[in-house]
Amino acid sequence: MTVVRQFAQFVKGSLRLVWHGNAAYWTWLAFLGVLIASGGLAYARQVSEGLGVTAMRDQVSWGFYIGNFTFLVGVAAAAVVLVIPAYVYDWKPIREIVIYGELLALSAITMCLLFVLVDIGRPDRFWHLLPPVGRLNFPQSILAWDVIVLNIYFAINFIVVTHILYRAFNGRHYNTRVVVPLVLLSIPMAVGIHTVTAFLFNGLAARPYWNASILAPQFLASAFCSGPAILLIVLQLLRRFTRFEIQDEAISKIAELMAYAMFLNLFLHGAEAFKEFYSNTEHAVYVRYWFFGLGTHTTLVPYAWTAVGLNVLAFGLFIVPAARRNWVLLNIGCLATYAGCYIDKGMGLIIPGLTPDTLGEIYEYAPSIVELRVAAGVFAIGFLIFTLMLKVAVPITLGEFHGDDAPEPAPGWPVAWH
Amino acid sequence: MTRRQFTTSAAAAAAGFVLTACGPKRLHEMSKDRLKGLIAEMERKYAEQYGTAVHVADTAAMPGVEFAYALDISRCIGCRRCVYACVDENNQSRDPQVHWIRVFSMEKEKGVDFAEANPYYQPKEVPEEGHFYVPVACQQCRQAPCTKVCPTGATWTDPDGIVVIDYDWCIGCRYCMAACPYGARHFNWRQPTIPKDQLNVNTHYLGNRPRPKGVVEKCTFCIQRTRKGRYPACVEVCPVGARKFGNLLDPESEIRYIIEHKRVMVLKEELNTLPKFFYFYAT
Amino acid sequence: MLRRIVLFAAAVVLAGAALYAVGQQPQQAAPQGRPAAAKAEERPEVPPPPFSDGIFPCSACHKDLKVNRTRRVLTDMHTDIDLKHDAEHRWCLDCHDANDRDYLHLASGELVPFEESYRLCGQCHGEKFRDWRAGVHGRRTGDWNGHKKYLLCANCHNPHQPRFKPIAPKPAPVRPTRPPK
Hints:
The complex is a heterotrimer.
Chain A: H1 2-19, H2 23-49, H3 64-77, H4 79-88, H5 92-95, H6 98-119, H7 142-169, H8 176-202, H9 215-241, H10 248-279, H11 285-291, H12 301-319, H13 321-325, H14 327-354, H15 369-398
Helix pairs in contact in A: 2-15, 3-6, 3-8, 3-9, 3-14, 4-6, 4-8, 6-7, 6-15, 7-8, 8-9, 9-10, 9-14, 10-12, 11-14, 12-14
Chain B: H1 3-22, H2 32-50, E1 55-57, E2 67-72, H3 81-89, E3 102-107, E4 131-136, H4 145-149, E5 155-157, E6 163-165, H5 175-179, E7 186-187, E8 202-204, E9 216-217, H6 223-226, H7 233-237, E10 243-247, H8 254-261, E11 263-265, E12 277-281
Parallel strand pairs in B: 1-8, 2-12
Antiparallel strand pairs in B: 2-10, 3-4, 5-6, 7-9, 11-12
Chain C: H1 59-62, E1 104-105, E2 111-112, H2 117-124, H3 126-133, E3 141-142, E4 148-149, H4 153-156
Helix pairs in contact in C: 2-3
């Protein structure tokens, strides 16, 4: 009976927490609500009229949705950047905040799955993917692999996070026999989801732009830039608006890791660009379209150079220790990283991969209003989930929200997890 | 094993069996009886929608047959008769426009190079000076990248070598379109429309039956005709006789004659897709 | 320019022929030396030769005309025929038989009916002829695994001007467009 009572308490308490907040909190929720409503309406139109309301066509058959999906898989995978130091090296300053990385991963995967759902032509048939009623073309289809690894990764993070938080709610230490193996498993899984997502594109010989073995490493490198970039901003917001304390050292260390990741990202991009331009085969046409345009088709060129500029700027900022400790520069670096990687992976990966199409035709894709609205709606759902989870998780980790039976938590409780 | 465990697992096994045996499945995997029932249902639905009797065949592949196609590049004049014969025969959407065959005008000086190709040529008369034409549709690859990537197994190669799509199982993810090196797959971005009086009522459930929006479609070598021994519509309409079709396993077939006597090539040979659509130069 | 469509068959249809003695019934007298029809199994099923209306049999007019073997520009009849089929080396009677106008003849002198004109064409265009027999040159309809219908060379190529005439293409596909705002 205690279990039921405790759970009821947890649910009731969580709802109370979510239901109470200051003006900023409600404004934020209202903002997300508006985006979700707008996205919902746009999606309803897309479902009733078909994907023709997007700017995708036979020539460019994937676009903004799949770009966002790819980017967010990277964000989800980036939780591992925190998990490795936290659990493997037991490095204290990061272990305090690793749970937020995992919450971010959960929200990111939710967004990934939503982006796939809004991209498919027959969302009413998504169950065709679910055995035993459906049929998953495993192991041939890399998309089948992606469905599997994303769901496993989601499940692992979900179990770890809820277990830790719920135990903490009840004033108990988490069960190491549950958490440690799962966390250790989540490390290869994080690499796995992004590798599999890279292979999704990589395996298509029809698209030389993607058919490069550098793709998976490059995916991971850019993921380890963009994921932490979001997290650093979130952590600073938490520090500002809650009693949550995060050591400067942790933030600076993450920024340092980002600098290395960004270096790797730029290096791999450079290696790819060298190969394309120096060998100058007919396959260079896709990189050329991205960076210079083809004839009068230059829609993507400003995006390409903006992404390069932002990534270089971020690298320049994060590589200088003094800049990492300067809050203004740090945040500029985070935003630059986020935006740079977002453009790079959203627009820069998908669209040049499909332009020109396999028979040489150039259709200049750029997302339609409906796509932008639906995508904004999906992001809003992700941020809403993240916000609500934080609203519950932060008080738990601060010891402010706990069950009646829980012993008084020791000060600085999260640190004392082991 | 306790009784409770036993009961639970027995129930699970029973549920699994029921779902597998009776649950929805790809059309080619289900029992003949169930398929017949579904086809009758399709015919009823189409008849209602188009106000005329529609026949949906389920003709199976003939044993000992592997279809192949050959197109004489030295002959084709780029008149696009095949494109529109295909649209009519295979009930392709008129608006939005779906064309399973795309004809590319190429410059003789540059050879077969899609980077320089133009599918939108519209001179008064064809052939144009200095140009030749390469029509492209599904190459019915032996190692088809499209079927490999399909996450639900909604597209596969039938025993006679035709790559088919189950329009009732496709979820519209378009991964196959990204994988196809020949731009052969087309998506129904909106509800396809076919004027009632232009509907071809002789259909095949894996071929030219009317498609819903949100699924992928492509050339099936006119499965509804060829499985009954007839030539594809594009072969019969071609005014210059550039299009050839037959059984690769029959040494007396036109296809075998072409492969053995002519200069033959396939598109994007380096991708190892092993097309069963050959291009040749008869002169 | 499109690769030149290979010149096919020589004269099939002498059809355009002079026909001013309208209504006169041709005589049935079969001249000597007429060939036996090709063996049935070797004979592909072909449509009738594409004669102009009322032109055949040629003998309807020609039987009363004196044979004039002089190479010349025709002024009284068949003025619509503009020979563009190796005209430098060839003239009507190289293909049409002078003695029996209802037949063509091979280089050997063997008479060939218009229904088998492909044999005449095949004399020069041997490779095309073999391709055609194999079903590879020219359009074929019917069943890929059974009854196939051939066309005569002359059904596609005007024997006097075998070159294909350019034709108007069907409309280009519509270009992909972004959705309306």
